[in-house]
Amino acid sequence: MAPFLAYEDKGMHTSRMPLVLVHGHPFDRSMWTPQFATFARTRRVIAPDLRGYGASPVAAGVTPLSVFADDIASLLDDLGVDRCVLAGLSMGGQIAMECWSRFPGRIAGLVLADTFPVAETEEGRRDRYAMADRLLREGMRPYADEVLYRMVAPHADPAVAAHVHRMMTAAPPEGSAAALRGRAERPDYRDLLTRVTVPALVVVGEDDTYTPVADAEAMHAALPDATLRVVAGAAHLPNLERPQEFDTVLKEFLERVDA
Questions:
Q1: How many CB atoms lie within 10 A of CB 127?
Q2: Residues of the signal sequence (predicted)?
C-alpha cells in the first residue's frame, strides 16, 4: 500500500486531459509552481511529493523506481484519475518511464524532461551509493551548495536559484539516499521507449550537463511519435529557469493530446 503522499491538485475538471507532474531529485512538488500557474487555469494539474521528499512520509533504505511508480498509480486511484498526461523531469522522467512499463493504459501522453533511459554503469552505481552515504553523513546542504549551478545555469534568476537551493536543503537525507540507491539499480528503458504508443515530448535545457542534449536526441530517435524541444539558456531545470519557453512547448503538446 502506498503511503499517503502530499500533493497539489488544482485546476478545472474539464474534458482536457489531466496533467500529472513528477519532480526530480532532490526536490519537491514546488518545483512545478510555474506550471500550476499556467495550466491550472484550463485543466486539472496534479503534482505529488514523492515518497521520501517534501511533506510525504520519509522512506529509509532503498526506494526503487517501481515503488515510486506504484505510489503514483495509487494516488491516481485515490483522486479518481483514469488517464492523464504524465510529465517527469530528471529522476521524475525515469519514474514516468517506469509508469509506462507498469500501467501504459493510464497514460495519454508522456513528457520526458532532462532525463535519460540508460541503466546505471558500474561506476555510476558505486557513485550513487557513495553519495547516499554522504547525504546521511553530512546532510543536504554541502551537496546543495556543490551542485546548485549545475541544476540551474550560473546566469539563472537569483530567485530561481534560491528556490532550487531551498528545495535541496529541505529534502530529507534518508529519502534522498533511498532514492539514490534505487536509481543505482534501475533497469534500462531504451527498448521500452521504442514501444511507447502515445505521443511523447522530449524537453532538455541547452546547457544541461547532467542529461545533455545528446541524451534527449537519442530518446527522441527511439520514441515512435515524439517531439524534441531544446530550451535555450537553461540547464537541468528549464521549467523553472525558462518557464515561459517551457510552458509554451508543453502547451502545444497538451493541445495535441487533447485533440
A1: 14
A2: none
